[in-house]
């Protein structure tokens, strides 16, 4: 029972941190006049999309490495193949990431010339927060 309670507390704290980070990202203008792209279609990505939509942030696209998701709508947003979408280098694109695969995703985005500090926003560092 204690492990279940600890997991709940850990997940609750991570969610609160994520929402605080998202609010800061919006308030600080990091997404203003940018083409916002969510990387991934996980439940956490859905939470991010939902929250930012409530904050009047428009998403240009979602990219996902899962081929089964391509060319489908998820949360009303079209999902693209990352490589095809990334190859059209655009300094105004900002990629949001919240995934246990974040390091691989960041490396994939950077391989197309995008800058980690200006084009990639790690919404929450899941591996560090979740310790797994």
Provide an overview of this structure.
The protein is of the alpha/beta class and 132 residues long. It is 46% helix and 18% strand. It contains six helices and six strands. The protein has helices spanning 2-27, 43-54, 82-86, 102-110, 116-119, 126-130; strands spanning 35-39, 59-63, 73-74, 77-80, 93-97, 120-122. Strands 3-4-2-1-5-6 form a six-stranded mixed β-sheet, sandwiched between helices. The protein starts with a helix and ends with a helix.
Defining traits:
132 residues, alpha/beta, 6-stranded mixed β-sheet, 6 helices
List the helices and strands and how they pair.
Elements: H1 2-27, E1 35-39, H2 43-54, E2 59-63, E3 73-74, E4 77-80, H3 82-86, E5 93-97, H4 102-110, H5 116-119, E6 120-122, H6 126-130
Parallel strand pairs: 1-2, 1-5, 2-4, 5-6
Antiparallel strand pairs: 3-4
Provide the helix percentage: 40-55%
What is the general shape? Answer: globular
Distance between the first and last residues' Cα = 20 Å
For the residues shown, what is the average pLDDT? 87
Task: Report on the biggest sheet.
Answer: 6 strands, mixed
Strand fraction band? 15-25%
Instruction: Give the count of helical stretches.
Output: 6
SSE sequence, one letter per element? HEHEEEHEHHEH
Low-confidence stretches: none
Number of strands: 6
């Amino acid at each position: 029972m204690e492990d279940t309670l600890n997991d709940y507390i850990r997940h609750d704290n991570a969610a609160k941190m994520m929402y605080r980070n998202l609010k800061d990202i919006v308030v600080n203008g990091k997404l203003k006049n940018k083409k916002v792209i969510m990387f991934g279609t996980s439940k956490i990505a859905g939470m991010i999309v939902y929250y930012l939509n409530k904050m009047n942030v428009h998403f240009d696209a979602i990219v996902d490495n899962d081929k089964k998701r391509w060319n489908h709508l998820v949360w009303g947003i079209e999902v693209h193949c990352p490589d095809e979408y990334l190859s059209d280098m655009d300094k105004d694109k900002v990629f949001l990431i919240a995934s246990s695969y974040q390091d691989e995703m960041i490396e994939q985005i950077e391989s197309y010339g995008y800058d980690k500090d200006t084009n990639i926003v790690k919404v929450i560092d899941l591996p560090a927060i979740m310790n797994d």
